[in-house]
Amino acid sequence: MNSDTFSKAPFPSARRFTKAEVRPSVLSIRGLLVAATILAFTMASAQGGTPGGVPGAPPKSTPAAPNQGGMTRMRIQAIEPEGTTGQLEIRFEGGPSVTTLLTGKGKDPVVFDAGCPPGATSVEAVARLTIRMAEGRLEKAQVRQVFRILSPVGPVFGGSGAFEPVAAWREFLEAEGLDPRHFEELRPEPEEAIAAAEKRLGFKLDPSHRTLLSRLGPIRSDDFFMIEPARMDVAMKQLETLWGDEAKRALSLPADVRELLGRSTMVLAAAGDGYSALIWERGEPGTAWRINQDSYSPKRMLDDAGRPLPFRAALGRVLSRLAELYLPSAGPRARITIHPGRLNVFYLNITRYAGELTLELVPE
């Protein structure tokens, strides 16, 4: 999709890093992933409800143990450049290992299935490779990575205890392996600005949202950013002020969608290969939705049990997914989320970082 369909809105400025600052890739499919998944930026795990659906009870803060029940299916697509061959082994904690060959056929992925046993909390991937270098010589290499298996609820920004935004931000950077220089300087918002935004909206912000803005400030990177109080409005208006909806496409949306956007506000927007946003619907408690420029059709953010995500769970999931899509990490993000009862699809991504090979499993 061409994001130039919409005019460029005045997004916050942030320093754009040079290509030299982003780690080079040997088997990188980052560009493919961004192009394929940008408009579903979150939420790979969320099953979307539609406006008018009846929300269930909010999930508990403490996530349930992953992989309850029977074996959970995983499908792994390994894409390697021409001339790279070898063996890939996947070993789940408490389960059998699965081995496959990497054929070196370039764009044709090696696809195989594996079963994640109930209660598994980790999975190990080992690749033994023969790489044909640019000058023609063959180089033997081995890379191993252990991934922690997360609950489908995903990361809750600030955890399940009392919310302290500064500590939550520090923990997020550490967990994601991110350099704070990839973000704008954080500046807490004055109470007067937040109160003025709530008056303009006609409803109160979620308490955690309010606390985050007043103690930490809006989180902003180059391609995604939280909305500061001065630019808060109902989402229906923000489609024009933030997305540049010059065609007034939003006016032709179904009545129930326009009503939802009229009682919601954008919490965070992404402006990479197309606009997308996390929006929050007023209520006690409120409800998190995702919307993208492709369809303008909001999807409710739910856990695997079909319950609406509370504010910090929705924000944590969105931030983690956007960081994975857009920002270089100090090393592999050694964790994956596996959803019981469904097929879980991952890309195998092997990169060279600081002269060493690293291995990632990236959700489709």
Give an overview in words:
- By secondary structure, the protein is an alpha+beta fold.
- It folds into two domains: 41-61 and 154-326, 3-Layer(aba) Sandwich (SMI1/KNR4-like); 72-150 and 331-363, Immunoglobulin-like.
- Helices cover 20% and strands 27% of the residues.
- The chain contains seven helices and 14 strands.
- The strands form three sheets. The chain has a five-stranded mixed β-sheet with strand order 3-2-5-6-12, with no helix packed on it. It has a five-stranded antiparallel β-sheet with strand order 7-8-9-10-11.
- It is elongated and about 65 Å long.
Structural class category: alpha+beta
CATH superfamily of the largest domain: SMI1/KNR4-like
Give me the Rg, rounded: 21 Å
Q: Can you tell me the CATH architecture of the largest domain?
A: 3-Layer(aba) Sandwich
Q: Going across the major beta sheet, what is the strand order? A: 3-2-5-6-12
Strand tally is 14
Instruction: Give the domain tally.
Output: 2
Return the average pLDDT rounded to an integer: 74
The backbone outline, from C-alpha atoms, is elongated
The rounded distance between the terminal residues' Cα atoms is: 18 Å
**Low-pLDDT segments:** 1-50, 52-69
* Largest sheet properties: 5 strands, mixed
**Order of helices and strands, N to C?**
HEEEEEEHHHEHHEEEEHEEE
Number of contiguous helices: 7
Strand content: 25-35%
Helix content: 10-25%
Question: What is the CATH topology classification name of the largest domain?
Answer: SMI1/KNR4-like
